[in-house]
Amino acid sequence: MNFDPASLTVYLVVGSQNVNDDPNEVIRVVQEACDAGVTAVQYREKDHSKLNQAEKVALGQKIRSITKAANVPLYVDDDLPLALAIQADGLHVGQGDTPVRAIHEVAPDLLLGLSVHDLKELAASEADLAVVDYLGVGPAFATTSKEKVKEAIGPEGVLAVASKSPLPVVAIGGIHEENCQELAELPIAGVAVISAITASDDIQRSVQKLRGVTK
Question: What residues pair up with 169 in beta bridges, in sequence order?
Answer without folding.
Answer: 135
